[in-house]
Amino acid sequence: MLSTFKKLGPGLLFAGAAIGVSHLVQSTRAGADYGLGLLWALLLVNLFKYPFFQFGPRYASATGESLLEGYYKLNKGILIAYFILSLATMFTIQTAVTIVTAGLAYSLFGDVSFLNFGVESISSVEIWTVIILFICLLILFLGKYNTLDKLIKVIIIALTISTLVAVSFAFLEFNTPISLVQVLPEDPTEIAFLIAFMGWMPAPLDISVWHSIWAIEKKKDEGTFSPKTALLDFNIGYFGAIILGIAFVCLGYFVMFNTGNSFSEKAAIFSNQLIDLYTKTLGNWSYIIIGIAAFTTMFSTTITTLDASPRAMAKSLAILSNQHKKNAYLYWVLILTFGTIFIFFAFASEMGLFIKIATILSFLTAPFYAIINYKLISSKHTPKDWRPSLKLHILSWLGIVFLIGFSIWYLTLL
Fold first, then answer.
1. How high is the pLDDT of residue 163?
2. Which one of 31, 61, 202, 306 is at 20 to 30 Å from 21 when CA atoms are compared?
3. In 10 A of CB 393, how many CB atoms?
4. Over 70: is that where the pLDDT of 282 sits?
């Protein structure tokens, strides 16, 4: 059992990247505003995204190369399109997750405005943003993949235990009959939330590319990472993310539904409300434990996205130019870090808007990733033994129709 756990890695990194804004923010808000009425959306989007996420580690472990090399083999234009889409969204996504992490740090560790060096316009949350990003940089530069792999295992275990315990206590104190009536949002604001909710549930589809890169890194680190192990690793991370998504919806429902309270759009206030969800059910004694669990969850998302996007961008350029520059990853990490800081300082008060933009963009680009991942895994570039089964083919076709259909539906309502 222990030896199997040691072999796991990329799937848990996937879970670490996924269990962040989509769970702590969007799922909790879905439960608070709609009760259990959006469970259908959570389950459907996880079902229909499943094959396209799975194709990342499947392809990487079967071929020894990431999805990016596969995209290039399909058509150079596909890799160029991926590069452009990633460049257009990476800063918004990084800013969205870092804002929430900084808000949690402020709630837990307090005011650090004394570090503003006399610049009164700089808030404590903005300072925490800089601190968090530079801590992430230090870990990535010194520890690299191996440290990330070990760190995420501790974080996921702590988060899972604390969340399930909190939901159990919240359920025991919930005195109203549980309603499983499902809801289909009708007005444009509600539909925008639904699309945002599904956009990052359990994660944006481009994380399949990151997962394939992590699988290659794991193979380098361990010496071997078979397709069978890769799929087990993926399934543990994926279904764990689904279970925790449901748990956060339930937590929002049990504690905030029909209370008249709503979540703030400001990072610091939202973070306090989020931690209060736990402490109201478990008691004040749990504030630090739960707060740290929530913080480490968002910290894991911040550090995994800060690691993965630069890896993908550096690798894409290397493939396109056929030139592997030694410090390309370093340059892209620094570009993403300082770009995030710039955006954050310019739009610090717009946490809700940033999250909405990032999640909607992720949903609208999902059909692109779904189609190219399916096309690649079904092509001659994938060993025949590891191409999809008939069931997986059918699920892929249904998933593509689902993602395209919902995207068109949303665009017609704009």
1. 80
2. 61
3. 15
4. no
Quickly tell me which residue has 């892929």 as its tokens.
396
Task: Assess whether pLDDT exceeds 60 at residue 115.
Answer: no
* C-alpha closest to that of 97 among 231, 267, 345, 248: 267
What CATH number corresponds to the domain at position 376?
1.20.1740.10
- SS3 per residue for the chain: CHHHHHHCCHHHHHHHHHCCHHHHHHHHHHHHHHCCCCHHHHHHHHHHHHHHHHHHHHHHHHHCCCHHHHHHHHCHHHHHHHHHHHHHHHHHHHHHHHHHHHHHHHHHHCCCHHHHCCCCCCCHHHHHHHHHHHHHHHHHHHCHHHHHHHHHHHHHHHHHHHHHHHHHHHHHCCCCCCCCCCCCCCCHHHHHHHHHHHHCCCCCCCHHHHHHHHHHHHHHHHCCCCHHHHHHHHHHHHHHHHHHHHHHHHHHHHHHCCCCCCCCCCHHHHHHHHHHHHHHHHCHHHHHHHHHHHHHHHHHHHHHHHHHHHHHHHHHHHHHHCCCCCCHHHHHHHHHHHHHHHHHHHCCCCHHHHHHHHHHHHHHHHHHHHHHHHHHHCCCCCCHHHCCCHHHHHHHHHHHHHHHHHHHHHHHCC
| Higher-confidence position of 411 and 39 | 39
Global pTM value: 0.86
* Range(s) of the domain holding residue 394: 2-412
Output the six-digit token pair for 380.
């001659």
Percent of the chain predicted with pLDDT > 90: 31
User: How many domains does one find in the chain?
Assistant: 1
Q: Please determine, for residue 327, whether its predicted confidence score (pLDDT) is greater than 60.
A: yes
Only one residue has tokens 């235990």, namely 161
